[in-house]
Protein backbone atom coordinates (compact mmCIF):
# COMPACT_ATOMS: atom_id res chain seq x y z
CA UNK A 1 0.00 0.00 0.00
CA UNK A 2 2.97 2.31 0.54
CA UNK A 3 3.57 2.30 -3.22
CA UNK A 4 0.27 4.11 -3.79
CA UNK A 5 1.72 7.31 -2.34
CA UNK A 6 3.82 7.69 -5.49
CA UNK A 7 2.09 9.28 -8.46
CA UNK A 8 4.04 7.28 -11.04
CA UNK A 9 2.87 4.01 -9.44
CA UNK A 10 -0.75 5.19 -9.32
CA UNK A 11 -0.52 6.13 -12.99
CA UNK A 12 0.97 2.74 -13.84
CA UNK A 13 -1.69 0.89 -11.86
CA UNK A 14 -4.54 2.80 -13.48
CA UNK A 15 -2.95 2.36 -16.89
CA UNK A 16 -2.64 -1.43 -16.63
CA UNK A 17 -6.20 -1.71 -15.31
CA UNK A 18 -7.58 0.12 -18.34
CA UNK A 19 -5.37 -1.32 -21.08
CA UNK A 20 -5.60 -4.90 -19.81
CA UNK A 21 -9.37 -4.79 -20.41
CA UNK A 22 -9.01 -3.62 -24.02
CA UNK A 23 -6.07 -5.96 -24.67
CA UNK A 24 -8.12 -8.94 -23.45
CA UNK A 25 -11.09 -7.97 -25.64
CA UNK A 26 -8.88 -7.50 -28.69
CA UNK A 27 -6.99 -10.69 -27.91
CA UNK A 28 -10.20 -12.73 -27.76
CA UNK A 29 -11.11 -11.54 -31.25
CA UNK A 30 -7.58 -12.35 -32.51
CA UNK A 31 -7.62 -15.85 -30.99
CA UNK A 32 -11.10 -16.55 -32.37
CA UNK A 33 -10.08 -15.52 -35.89
CA UNK A 34 -6.81 -17.47 -35.53
CA UNK A 35 -4.81 -14.32 -36.20
CA UNK A 36 -2.40 -14.38 -33.27
CA UNK A 37 0.46 -13.72 -35.67
CA UNK A 38 -1.07 -10.38 -36.68
CA UNK A 39 -0.20 -8.93 -33.28
CA UNK A 40 3.45 -9.80 -33.89
CA UNK A 41 3.36 -8.56 -37.46
CA UNK A 42 1.75 -5.22 -36.66
CA UNK A 43 3.94 -4.81 -33.57
CA UNK A 44 7.11 -5.18 -35.61
CA UNK A 45 5.68 -3.04 -38.40
CA UNK A 46 5.36 -0.28 -35.76
CA UNK A 47 9.14 -0.26 -35.55
CA UNK A 48 9.18 1.32 -39.00
CA UNK A 49 7.03 4.16 -37.69
CA UNK A 50 9.25 4.60 -34.66
CA UNK A 51 12.37 4.84 -36.82
CA UNK A 52 10.75 7.25 -39.27
CA UNK A 53 9.40 9.38 -36.43
CA UNK A 54 12.83 9.73 -34.82
CA UNK A 55 14.43 10.53 -38.18
CA UNK A 56 11.88 13.22 -39.09
CA UNK A 57 11.61 14.63 -35.56
CA UNK A 58 7.92 13.69 -35.34
CA UNK A 59 6.29 12.08 -32.31
CA UNK A 60 7.33 8.42 -32.77
CA UNK A 61 4.11 7.13 -31.16
CA UNK A 62 2.02 8.98 -33.76
CA UNK A 63 4.12 7.57 -36.58
CA UNK A 64 4.00 4.09 -35.05
CA UNK A 65 0.21 4.40 -34.93
CA UNK A 66 0.08 5.36 -38.60
CA UNK A 67 2.27 2.40 -39.53
CA UNK A 68 0.23 0.04 -37.34
CA UNK A 69 -3.08 1.06 -38.89
CA UNK A 70 -1.65 0.98 -42.42
CA UNK A 71 -0.09 -2.45 -41.92
CA UNK A 72 -3.14 -4.03 -40.26
CA UNK A 73 -5.53 -2.62 -42.87
CA UNK A 74 -3.07 -3.76 -45.55
CA UNK A 75 -3.20 -7.33 -44.22
CA UNK A 76 -7.00 -7.30 -44.28
CA UNK A 77 -7.05 -5.71 -47.75
CA UNK A 78 -4.59 -8.18 -49.30
CA UNK A 79 -6.35 -11.20 -47.80
CA UNK A 80 -9.86 -10.12 -48.85
CA UNK A 81 -9.13 -8.38 -52.18
CA UNK A 82 -6.33 -10.50 -53.63
CA UNK A 83 -6.95 -13.77 -51.79
CA UNK A 84 -3.49 -13.63 -50.22
CA UNK A 85 -3.16 -15.91 -47.22
CA UNK A 86 -3.27 -13.84 -44.05
CA UNK A 87 -0.11 -15.38 -42.62
CA UNK A 88 1.74 -14.47 -45.84
CA UNK A 89 0.43 -10.89 -45.74
CA UNK A 90 1.48 -10.62 -42.09
CA UNK A 91 4.99 -11.78 -42.97
CA UNK A 92 5.21 -9.08 -45.65
CA UNK A 93 4.24 -6.17 -43.37
CA UNK A 94 6.43 -7.60 -40.58
CA UNK A 95 9.52 -7.60 -42.82
CA UNK A 96 8.82 -4.22 -44.41
CA UNK A 97 8.21 -2.51 -41.06
CA UNK A 98 11.37 -3.87 -39.48
CA UNK A 99 13.45 -3.00 -42.54
CA UNK A 100 12.17 0.59 -42.62
CA UNK A 101 12.74 0.94 -38.88
CA UNK A 102 16.33 -0.31 -39.03
CA UNK A 103 17.14 1.99 -41.95
CA UNK A 104 15.81 5.17 -40.34
CA UNK A 105 17.18 4.40 -36.88
CA UNK A 106 20.59 3.94 -38.50
CA UNK A 107 20.19 7.24 -40.40
CA UNK A 108 19.12 9.19 -37.29
CA UNK A 109 22.08 11.23 -35.99
CA UNK A 110 23.28 10.37 -32.49
CA UNK A 111 21.68 8.04 -30.00
CA UNK A 112 17.97 7.33 -30.40
CA UNK A 113 16.36 8.18 -27.03
CA UNK A 114 13.67 6.03 -25.41
CA UNK A 115 14.13 3.27 -28.00
CA UNK A 116 14.61 0.68 -25.25
CA UNK A 117 11.27 1.63 -23.69
CA UNK A 118 9.52 0.82 -26.96
CA UNK A 119 11.45 -2.42 -27.41
CA UNK A 120 11.20 -3.71 -23.84
CA UNK A 121 8.53 -1.53 -22.22
CA UNK A 122 8.51 0.59 -19.08
CA UNK A 123 5.16 0.58 -17.33
CA UNK A 124 6.27 3.04 -14.67
CA UNK A 125 6.65 5.83 -17.26
CA UNK A 126 2.92 5.97 -18.04
CA UNK A 127 1.63 9.55 -17.85
CA UNK A 128 -1.79 11.11 -17.35
CA UNK A 129 -1.96 11.73 -21.08
CA UNK A 130 -1.41 8.02 -21.72
CA UNK A 131 -4.17 7.13 -19.26
CA UNK A 132 -6.59 9.49 -21.01
CA UNK A 133 -5.71 7.93 -24.37
CA UNK A 134 -6.15 4.42 -22.92
CA UNK A 135 -9.49 5.42 -21.42
CA UNK A 136 -10.88 6.95 -24.62
CA UNK A 137 -9.80 3.93 -26.65
CA UNK A 138 -11.28 1.43 -24.17
CA UNK A 139 -14.61 3.27 -24.01
CA UNK A 140 -14.79 3.34 -27.82
CA UNK A 141 -13.94 -0.36 -28.00
CA UNK A 142 -16.55 -1.33 -25.40
CA UNK A 143 -19.16 0.78 -27.19
CA UNK A 144 -18.39 -0.88 -30.52
CA UNK A 145 -18.63 -4.35 -28.94
CA UNK A 146 -21.91 -3.43 -27.26
CA UNK A 147 -23.47 -2.29 -30.54
CA UNK A 148 -22.09 -4.94 -32.88
CA UNK A 149 -21.42 -7.86 -30.52
CA UNK A 150 -23.38 -10.50 -32.48
CA UNK A 151 -21.94 -9.38 -35.80
CA UNK A 152 -18.39 -9.41 -34.40
CA UNK A 153 -18.81 -12.94 -33.07
CA UNK A 154 -20.29 -14.26 -36.32
CA UNK A 155 -17.64 -12.58 -38.48
CA UNK A 156 -14.89 -13.90 -36.22
CA UNK A 157 -16.09 -17.51 -36.30
CA UNK A 158 -17.37 -17.81 -39.89
CA UNK A 159 -16.66 -14.97 -42.28
CA UNK A 160 -18.05 -16.72 -45.37
CA UNK A 161 -21.39 -17.58 -43.75
CA UNK A 162 -21.66 -14.02 -42.44
CA UNK A 163 -21.29 -12.71 -45.99
CA UNK A 164 -24.00 -15.08 -47.22
CA UNK A 165 -26.56 -13.85 -44.67
CA UNK A 166 -25.78 -10.23 -45.49
CA UNK A 167 -23.73 -9.04 -42.53
CA UNK A 168 -21.35 -6.09 -43.09
CA UNK A 169 -18.32 -8.35 -42.85
CA UNK A 170 -15.89 -5.96 -44.52
CA UNK A 171 -16.85 -3.03 -42.29
CA UNK A 172 -16.68 -5.14 -39.13
CA UNK A 173 -13.32 -6.66 -40.04
CA UNK A 174 -11.74 -3.35 -41.05
CA UNK A 175 -12.98 -1.63 -37.90
CA UNK A 176 -11.69 -4.42 -35.67
CA UNK A 177 -8.41 -4.33 -37.56
CA UNK A 178 -8.03 -0.64 -36.77
CA UNK A 179 -8.85 -1.34 -33.11
CA UNK A 180 -6.17 -4.04 -33.06
CA UNK A 181 -3.60 -1.61 -34.47
CA UNK A 182 -4.42 1.17 -32.02
CA UNK A 183 -4.40 -1.25 -29.09
CA UNK A 184 -0.95 -2.46 -30.12
CA UNK A 185 0.43 1.08 -30.33
CA UNK A 186 -0.98 2.07 -26.94
CA UNK A 187 0.25 -1.12 -25.29
CA UNK A 188 3.81 -0.80 -26.60
CA UNK A 189 4.59 1.57 -23.72
CA UNK A 190 3.37 -1.06 -21.26
CA UNK A 191 5.27 -4.17 -22.32
CA UNK A 192 7.28 -3.14 -25.37
CA UNK A 193 7.54 -4.60 -28.84
CA UNK A 194 9.21 -7.79 -27.62
CA UNK A 195 6.53 -8.84 -25.13
CA UNK A 196 3.34 -7.41 -26.60
CA UNK A 197 2.29 -10.59 -28.42
CA UNK A 198 2.19 -12.47 -25.09
CA UNK A 199 -0.18 -9.96 -23.53
CA UNK A 200 -2.55 -10.22 -26.49
CA UNK A 201 -2.59 -14.02 -26.54
CA UNK A 202 -1.75 -15.67 -23.19
CA UNK A 203 -4.86 -14.58 -21.19
CA UNK A 204 -7.11 -15.77 -24.01
CA UNK A 205 -5.22 -19.05 -24.37
CA UNK A 206 -5.70 -19.65 -20.65
CA UNK A 207 -9.39 -18.75 -20.80
CA UNK A 208 -9.87 -20.97 -23.85
CA UNK A 209 -8.91 -24.01 -21.75
CA UNK A 210 -12.26 -23.84 -19.92
CA UNK A 211 -14.42 -21.60 -22.11
CA UNK A 212 -15.30 -22.05 -25.78
CA UNK A 213 -18.05 -19.45 -26.19
CA UNK A 214 -16.93 -15.94 -27.14
CA UNK A 215 -18.59 -14.04 -24.29
CA UNK A 216 -17.42 -16.18 -21.34
CA UNK A 217 -13.96 -16.51 -22.87
CA UNK A 218 -13.66 -12.73 -23.21
CA UNK A 219 -14.84 -12.17 -19.62
CA UNK A 220 -12.36 -14.75 -18.30
CA UNK A 221 -9.59 -13.20 -20.40
CA UNK A 222 -10.29 -9.77 -18.91
CA UNK A 223 -10.16 -11.22 -15.38
CA UNK A 224 -6.89 -13.08 -16.03
CA UNK A 225 -5.35 -10.02 -17.67
CA UNK A 226 -6.37 -7.71 -14.83
CA UNK A 227 -5.06 -10.03 -12.10
CA UNK A 228 -1.80 -10.76 -13.95
CA UNK A 229 -1.10 -7.10 -14.73
CA UNK A 230 -1.76 -5.85 -11.20
CA UNK A 231 0.21 -8.70 -9.63
CA UNK A 232 3.12 -8.24 -12.04
CA UNK A 233 3.20 -4.50 -11.43
CA UNK A 234 3.31 -4.93 -7.66
CA UNK A 235 5.87 -7.74 -7.70
CA UNK A 236 8.09 -5.93 -10.19
CA UNK A 237 8.02 -2.72 -8.15
CA UNK A 238 8.81 -4.56 -4.90
CA UNK A 239 11.69 -6.74 -6.12
CA UNK A 240 12.97 -4.09 -8.58
CA UNK A 241 12.78 -6.07 -11.84
CA UNK A 242 11.06 -5.11 -15.12
CA UNK A 243 7.31 -5.23 -14.51
CA UNK A 244 6.50 -6.16 -18.11
CA UNK A 245 8.54 -9.37 -17.92
CA UNK A 246 6.93 -10.31 -14.58
CA UNK A 247 3.45 -9.76 -16.05
CA UNK A 248 4.17 -12.07 -18.96
CA UNK A 249 5.67 -14.74 -16.66
CA UNK A 250 2.58 -14.62 -14.44
CA UNK A 251 0.38 -15.04 -17.52
CA UNK A 252 2.50 -18.01 -18.59
CA UNK A 253 2.09 -19.49 -15.11
CA UNK A 254 -1.68 -19.05 -15.20
CA UNK A 255 -1.88 -20.75 -18.59
CA UNK A 256 0.31 -23.62 -17.37
CA UNK A 257 -1.82 -24.13 -14.26
CA UNK A 258 -5.06 -24.05 -16.27
CA UNK A 259 -3.70 -26.49 -18.84
CA UNK A 260 -2.34 -28.87 -16.21
CA UNK A 261 -5.59 -28.83 -14.22
CA UNK A 262 -7.81 -29.49 -17.25
CA UNK A 263 -7.43 -33.32 -17.22
CA UNK A 264 -7.96 -33.38 -13.45
CA UNK A 265 -11.15 -31.34 -13.75
CA UNK A 266 -12.49 -33.58 -16.51
CA UNK A 267 -11.76 -36.67 -14.42
CA UNK A 268 -13.45 -35.12 -11.41
CA UNK A 269 -16.52 -34.17 -13.46
Describe this structure in words.
By secondary structure, this protein is mainly alpha-helical. It has one domain: ABC transporter involved in vitamin B12 uptake, BtuC (Orthogonal Bundle), CATH 1.10.3470. The chain is about 85% helix and about 0% strand. Helix 2 crosses helix 3, helix 2 packs parallel to helix 4 and helix 9 packs across helix 10.
Multimeric organization: single chain
**How many helices?**
10
**Stretches where pLDDT falls below 50 for ≥5 residues?**
none
| C-alpha Rg (nearest Å) | 19 Å
Highlighted features:
single chain; 269 residues; mainly alpha; ABC transporter involved in vitamin B12 uptake, BtuC; 84% helix; 0% strand; globular
Short structural description:
The protein contains 10 helices and no strands. With 269 residues, it is mainly α.
Present the secondary structure layout.
Blueprint: H1 7-32, H2 36-56, H3 60-81, H4 86-107, H5 115-120, H6 128-157, H7 159-164, H8 169-208, H9 214-239, H10 243-268
